[in-house]
Design goal:
2 domains, alpha+beta
């Protein structure tokens, strides 16, 4: 029986066998976690499936790659971050964390080329400390705002209604103004990053 050809845009299928070996169906060869990490850096999408049951094991394999990188290479995840992340498991805010982390990583990914370029051009990387502190402050403010909206029963990804004359002085109007102020601050921060990249 001929193997089905992978369509463009479809993820590569990696099969995981009981002996913990990983098989790349595209190249018809066994791969390691390092190979998968290299594929991610190249922007190649894949899913890991149990060879026998077909169960999706992608999340556990990606977590395993992070574990390997954290133990064998330079640590990237601060201990305080790991502790905070663990503390959110089982917490009512657990459902908000993935979206927040995804948004933060998307911002970093969008600006990574500009940040790398600016870092390469600058001999004094201390100039970037205030920039990263400001990004951290903005992220914290965004997260706190998301928690407030979540506590009010709103979904964090839904924009609140603009303030009306009735709510202008009330709590709702204040929150809308805070969100507008955060948006303006984020735009100003993006302009700073863009200016550094030039």
């Amino acid at each position: 029986m001929a193997r089905k050809k992978r369509e463009p845009g479809e993820p590569i299928i990696i099969k995981k066998y009981a002996n913990r070996r990983l098989y790349n169906t595209e190249t018809s060869g066994y791969v390691t976690l390092d190979h998968l990490a290299a594929m991610i850096k190249e922007g190649r999408d894949f899913v890991v499936l149990d060879a026998k049951t077909g169960e999706d094991l992608t999340r556990s394999v990606l977590t395993q790659i992070i574990f390997e990188k954290e133990t064998k290479e330079r640590n990237m995840l601060p201990l305080s971050f790991l502790r905070q992340l663990i503390a959110f498991y089982g917490d009512g805010l657990q459902t908000m964390v993935p979206g927040y982390l995804q948004s933060a990583m998307e911002v970093l990914t969008r600006n990574q080329d500009e940040l790398r370029s600016a870092l390469d051009r600058s001999e004094d990387t201390g100039n970037f400390v205030p920039l990263f502190e400001e990004i951290a402050r903005q992220n914290l403010a965004l997260f706190e705002q998301s928690m407030q909206l979540f506590a009010m029963g709103r979904r964090p990804d839904v924009k609140p209604a603009p303030a009306t004359e009735k709510t202008e002085g009330g709590a709702e109007g204040g929150k809308a103004r805070e969100i507008d102020a955060l948006k303006a601050q984020l735009a100003a921060l993006k302009d700073k990053v863009d200016a550094l990249a030039r």
